[in-house]
């Protein structure tokens, strides 16, 4: 899993990069401005525990929509998982987006 890259993205209302984990570390400069400073991988080293959950801080109604987790190895897509999140109230400081995009399920 050394060369594994993890991309969290959205495609509505326009294509956005939510979070990128690449070459063993978070690659936040690739994020869409809307998510800067608001995301982190739940596990500091997802390659070790295979936990690819994304934590989204300060969620709002604007964060509602479909999120896609894409796992790439050697630039080849090995798994893609999408889920829809609907925020009704912004009543919490952070939310875990998903725990279901795991390379162990290949």
TrEMBL record:
<dbReference type="InterPro" id="IPR007110">
    <property type="entry name" value="Ig-like_dom"/>
</dbReference>
<protein>
    <recommendedName>
        <fullName>Ig-like domain-containing protein</fullName>
    </recommendedName>
</protein>
<dbReference type="InterPro" id="IPR036179">
    <property type="entry name" value="Ig-like_dom_sf"/>
</dbReference>
<dbReference type="InterPro" id="IPR013783">
    <property type="entry name" value="Ig-like_fold"/>
</dbReference>
<feature type="domain" description="Ig-like">
    <location>
        <begin position="32"/>
        <end position="79"/>
    </location>
</feature>
